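Case study 2.
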Amino acid sequence: MQRILFRDVDVIATFDRERRELRGGWLLVEGNRIAALGEGDPPQGPFTEVLSGKDRVMVPGMVNVHHHLYQSLFRAVPGAQDKELFDWLLFLYEKWRGIDEEAVYTSTAVGCLELLLSGCTTTTDHLYLFPRGQGGLTDVEIEAAAAVGIRFHPTRGSMSLSREAGGLPPPDVVQTEEEILRDSDRLIRRWHDPGFGAMVRIALAPCSPFSVTPELMRRTAELARERGVLLHTHLAETWDEEEFCRAKFGVRPVDYLAGVGWLAPDVWLAHLVHVTGEDIRRLAAAGVGMAHCPSSNMILGSGIAPVPEILASGMAVGLGVDGSASNDSSNMVREARQAMLLSRVKYGAEAMSARTALELATLGGARVLHREEEIGSLEPGKCADLSLWDLSALEFAGAADPVAALVHCGAQYADLVMVNGVILVRRGRLVNEDLYALVPRQREITRRLLA
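Prediction:
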């Protein structure tokens, strides 16, 4: 069994129960778990490898709880850059409908690489677009994530309500409810691993109130609870969505969710921008989690989610970079900075500290995915998912607080990233250099899809 020792780390920000920050610390990895950590003299060898943490800060691997990886093919698309959500979707559906297995494999890998380099070791994905004849796309993205080495929690998304039936998507990217439920069950049986430290877990994720029927929401929840997997969807992202729910269902979004049996602890929701104090109280009482997506909300002009109020309610809150096409980036540490800045814009300078933002990106995301006993903090027995950041880099010159500097000073890419005990990034570069060949291939696919 491998034994890797990190020693002389300037600061290890554990995010454990005491929120300890170890100075001049060490951390021992045995196999794929954290065996021990502390200050002072490290344990005795032999070791497979000893790594110096001088001029480095170590944090837990970050957890991305909302994304649409295929959208990394569609960044900064002319005609979509200055639209709000509904018009943005209507425009991009016409581009997205051309995706195939190669496009999904490449975009998933590229998005995961960008996340990995930014300190993210676990990511979800919400793939809800299945053009006719492309039913196996979730399997393809699971294979792509495995090739990268990231811990993956894909959600089998779905759209059943085409524009002809009163929804938003075109008919050739929606599926019947029977197709959706049959494939959801198949994916759970094939891929879902409920065991400790699983590298793949499945969740089920009807896209939104304006792209699926209430019946599909109910039946998906029944299947998820029968199979023991989590549920995910978008909710309360824009005023357009609220008006849609009032017009079509006669209720507001959180009331709609309650009516289809989704106010429960096995649910997490993306966005929650337009929620009232009573909405927050109901969601918190039900144990629902939240994926906060600040960059996407800003680019689409959707508004500012009341995250300090939601945190005060006791809800689990994690961060999501969201689709690259509504963020144009898949960088987790920058998303933590955006979360801090956006809360301060609305609530004042004390609304969110840098450490709170980092906690959302790590332990908060683990709580949302019900994996806080496995990932999200640096503690003995947990999975060896971590990142090291080089404090001698230009952006940190003069920084007095190394932990806060990751957020305040605009960190971009980690120096070292380990997932499940395997070092995937060293000196700011992917260990598997062959993966960089996917970048020009992605550019070619994008040109084809936009042509």
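The chain has 14 helices and 17 strands.
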